[in-house]
Specification:
The protein is mainly beta and 451 residues long. It has four domains: 2-180, Immunoglobulin-like (Sandwich), CATH 2.60.40; 186-268, Immunoglobulin-like, CATH 2.60.40.1080; 277-359, Sandwich (Immunoglobulin-like), CATH 2.60.40.1080; 368-450, Immunoglobulin-like (Sandwich). It is 5% helix and 49% strand. The protein has two helices and 34 strands. It has helices at 2-17, 160-166, and strands spanning 35-36, 41-47, 50-53, 61-63, 70-73, 78-87, 90-96, 110-115, 120-129, 138-148, 168-180, 186-191, 198-199, 205-213, 221-227, 231-234, 239-244, 246-254, 261-268, 277-282, 289-290, 296-304, 312-318, 322-325, 330-335, 337-345, 352-359, 376-378, 385-389, 399-404, 409-414, 419-423, 430-437, 443-450. A hairpin with a 4-residue loop joins strand 16 and strand 17 (239-244).
Amino acid sequence: MRQIFNTILAALISFLLFTPFESKAQYCAPPINFIDNSWDYIDSVSFGSVQNKSGQGATAYSDFTALGPIEVSIGVQSTITVRIMSDADEYVHVFIDWNQNDTLDDPGEMYTLASGTAQTGLVTLTYDITPPATALPGNTRMRVVVDWDDMNMGDPCFGPSLSSIFGTYGEIEDYTVTVLAPVPTSVVITTAGSAPAEITTNGGTLQLEAEVLPASANQDVIWTIVPGTGNADISSTGLVTALSNGNVWAKAVAVGDTTIMDSLEIQISGQIVPITGVIVGTQNGVPAMIDVNGGTLQLEAQVLPAEAVQDVLWSVIAVTGMATISNNGLVTAMANGTVWAKAVSLDDPSFADSILITITNQGTGLKGLFAENAVDVYPVPFENELVVDLKNVAYQGMQYRLVNALGQVMRQAMVDSRQMRIETGNLAAGMYTLILLDAEGRVSALPLIRK
């Protein structure tokens, strides 16, 4: 009987293909009055948490949308198992409305579990289904169809034109599927174009990219900057803009799970921060004085703002006393009186600050041995070499210093012979002071000119 019917159907297919079907309503209801499920039906469906042993339905259509729901995650494979009662030549399809537009036959929404089964009786079929990245999260419809002899040609609505005219064989079951956005497992930050993780130009930028894994997970992230020794801004799209030199950490947090994140260290250089001032003080706030023979006082200079380059040039300006100063601000007393210690910003010399230092308890007489003609120094003025002849002076434990006009020590060493030769070839022309400091702390000083 069914073979005769199939022959008639084939004869009319060409006509029906060119006959417009009426448009399908939302989640079309199959024409159950024209579907016979006596020989062919769905015995059970297992998918996710739902295991439904339905058996032969009272009609050819059953609505099981209240079961479950069946939860699936985008990009994650799940296996559906359908067992059917087969009368041979069965076609089994699963339709899932991934885009939730209330139709079931859009591209990528049909999965064929069987195409013309040879077996009869109970037949178990399986299929691995992976929700596409374009699937919309939320509840949607799944339809399971068994269709004898493919009479409806993969139509989830059992083509009302065919069924209403000739009738057909099979069964349909509907279920609810809940589509879940996949849970992020990790975040990976990279630079666009694999560029170095650095910014070397003033106010420069660096584009970052964040990939949330798995790839089917929500790719949205929240960008922030964690300052290290430097600082920067970051946009919502991962564009880093340098603010100050040093290092920073760019952090991306997955919107889908805020416990999942990644960070990338960025080195920043070449930033120009406008200087607003320089402040000079003593280390630990001690009084600005030296009262020990040959004693020292450590100074500190802060360039404002704190993000600016902190390098300064130290110098000493004698008032009534005498001292030297090192490159890191260590003042060494030479003679009683007062001196100004000055720090000038190297980045912007228009900003400077000074502190007045009082010096007491130093050896008497600035000229000392030089005033007594106990030491000869030549040539005067000097150029590439300065010779110091100590004659009959006891030089054990004595040291010398050659200081420029800023109070900076340009040459210094312990005296190891009665006649010293000090190499001065790379010194700039200008005023210098030769200082001899004996083992008892007595100071002798002689102004000189380097031509």
